[in-house]
Write a structure and sequence with these properties.
This protein is α/β, with parallel strands linked by helices. It has helices at 44-54, 112-148, 156-187, 189-207; strands at 7-10, 14-19, 25-39, 68-82, 85-104. The chain has 4 helices and 5 strands. The two termini are 31 Å apart.
């Protein structure tokens, strides 16, 4: 099953506070969790049908996928007003990723060949979703730096608008990076699977 776009992003929303005098600070808080969905089957076709039937859906689509990463951005910013100018004070960007992975619940009694195929596929699914989460964390750090570097404005209302615009640009860039990653992965899916299977075959042969 090809690995297609299957991440969901909740736009960043900054809460606002004003401060007359406060030191500047910046922070990125990243968290990650895992959840699983069970599939059953004794053949490769059965497992593929189970993934298509039970896998998670991506935002805005009814298509099922073998794995997914849900991404939620958030944040807080304070503004410091002094001598008729306003600048960003404290910045905190948060990103939570939830990785959803398949779990083969009827593996017992399956053939060694099918177990080998599943091990290769499931490890590739997990690696792929972990990379989605890593892209989100990297972009959260980039957004924090970009917001902290914004120039002073004549009013905190204008500063707030600038922060909102910058956070929107950050989310758009994040979406472009995720889509680019999925396009590359889809093209290389067959090559990756063949390489993983060959590695497992060679590893088993060497262990004998």
């Amino acid at each position: 099953m090809p690995l297609a776009v299957r991440y969901m992003v909740v736009p960043i929303a900054f809460s606002i506070a004003l401060s007359l005098c406060s030191p500047s600070a910046a922070e990125v808080i990243a968290s990650k969790s895992y959840s699983y969905f069970d599939i059953r089957g004794k053949t490769a076709d059965e497992l593929d049908r189970e993934l298509s039937r039970r896998g998670p859906t991506a935002s805005g689509s009814s298509a099922r996928h073998p794995g997914a990463t849900k991404i939620r951005f958030g944040g807080e910013a304070t503004y410091i007003q002094n001598n008729g100018r306003c600048r960003v004070g404290n910045v905190k960007v948060t990103v939570h990723t939830q990785i959803i992975l398949p779990r083969w619940s009827s593996r017992k009694g399956a053939s060694k060949e099918l177990s080998m195929i599943w091990d290769a596929l499931s490890s590739d699914i997990k690696r792929h979703e972990e990379r989605h989460a890593e892209i989100a964390r990297d972009q959260a750090r980039a957004m924090e730096r970009a917001i902290r570097a914004l120039p002073q404005q004549r009013s905190c209302e204008a500063m707030q608008e600038l922060v909102s615009d910058e956070s929107a640009r950050g989310i758009e860039e994040h979406d472009r990076q995720q889509a680019r990653f999925d396009r590359v992965e889809a093209v290389n899916f067959q090559k990756r699977m063949l390489r993983l299977l060959n590695n497992q075959i060679n590893g088993r042969a060497g262990a004998k």
